[in-house]
Amino acid sequence: MKKTVILLFFLIPLRLFPQQHPLPVESASLLEAGHAQFDFTAAYFHDQPYPLSGLTGDLAKFGDIRFAVSLSEYVELQMDGTLLNLLRIRRREPAFNSFKTISSNPTADIGDFSVWTKFGVLNEYSTGIGFSVRFGIQLPNASNESGLGVDEMNFNSSLLFQKHFAGKWSVNVGLGILGDPTVTGQQHDVFNYGIEYSLPIGESTYILLQSSGRRGHEGIGVHHLDNAKIGIKVELGDLTLDAKGVTNFSAEDKAKGLEITASYFFQFIDMRQ
Question: For the domain that residue 141 is a member of, what is the CATH number?
Fold first, then answer.
């Protein structure tokens, strides 16, 4: 049964997720064995830049999805991405890939898709701190002709830490190896970071504070990223809703926006079989 689930997981169509945003903050804790979580997000960003194609505009993201399934108390498989990115172009500037970019306005495409594996190492409730490691590959599904893709495969790895102290703290640090869309065979080595604080303000309501980004080697189409998010999360049994305002503040990206997410937690595999 477990082998069948793993095979089905990797046969799901791998299409979705844009490189223009930092990696989301990931919790160190794993789902309960045999259970799964499905997230669906809609988002909007004003003045979102795409430096490789020279486009800047208002970006609507329809169907930012994430699926995670825990095969044991130590292993979790994940995939995430975006079903549709729709950019209403406000400015076109000369850029490396601008001569290939379609002239239609708006422009639309799927996002790149990422597949992840997370391994639990330490359980916070038995050791005092939660610790996991996470590895992922981002596939080049978004086309450069749309102006929204870079046609590069990327690799990321992260160390995930978690601690409950006057709320819940999650800290991510890791490395990324990103392809260079302008030079064949070149790569960019980057440092990824993320921190989240979840403060309970009721029995099932939380204030969320997040910041994440990417630093290190950069070039055309691969630049530094930094953002901050503030929002609220409400748990309604197996369903969780959250809404966050987003501000990007790197030199190359000043976009501001809003994300609304619905998450559903359910049993996926009967581990007693």
Answer: 2.40.160.40
| pTM of the full structure | 0.89
| 262 token code pair | 């619905």
Q: Which two tokens stand for residue 72?
A: 């044991």
Range of the domain at 177: 2-267
**DSSP class per residue in 177-196:** EEE-TTSTT-EEEEEEEEEE
Count of structural domains, the chain = 1
Does residue 272 belong to any structural domain of this protein? no
Residue 20 binned pLDDT confidence (cut-offs 50, 70, 90): low
Which tens digits make up the pLDDT trace of 59-94?
999 989 999 999 899 999 999 999 999 999 999 999
CA-wise closest residue to 214 among 42, 51, 22, 49: 22
Residue 75 lies in a domain: yes
273 falls within a domain: no
> Which region, left, alpha or beta, applies to residue 240 given φ > 0 means left and ψ of -120 to 50 means alpha?
beta
Taking only the tens place, the pLDDT of each residue in 92-108 is: 999 999 898 988 999 99
